[in-house]
Amino acid sequence: MSTGLKVVEKVYASFSTQNDDAARELLAPDVQWIQCKGFPGGGHHRGRDEVIEKVMHALHGEWNSFSATMDEVIDADHHVIVLGTYRGVHSLTGKPMEAVFAHVFDIEDGKVTRFRQYADTFPMHAAMELFD
């Protein structure tokens, strides 16, 4: 297992437990966090504090029992690709969702410098009742 994959596994764990300190240790100060524009709260986030506040905390505020499961991993040391599944229950509607994703992490000196997300956002929008 590469150093990059170890970092990525720790990132998922820190987001799952909402451990701000662990996340700060794993994200570069100037990390670029690029989420799908259709993803709730999506867009381009810069800096670890913004990522922690606008991604990690926001997801757990919007969704009950939110999780991102790593289903398959492509480990290329400084680049780690994760294919997985989001699960959660929307906090306002009470509707569950399950959506597939691909995450691409760039790792330098043991820290995430860039994250790119590709996700099926339709199940999330349906659980949020954004469609008639």
Automatic annotation (TrEMBL):
**Domain SnoaL-like: start-end pairs:** 8-114
Q: Name one Pfam family in it.
A: SnoaL_2
Instruction: State the protein's name.
Output: SnoaL-like domain protein
Q: What organism is this sequence from? A: Crateriforma conspicua
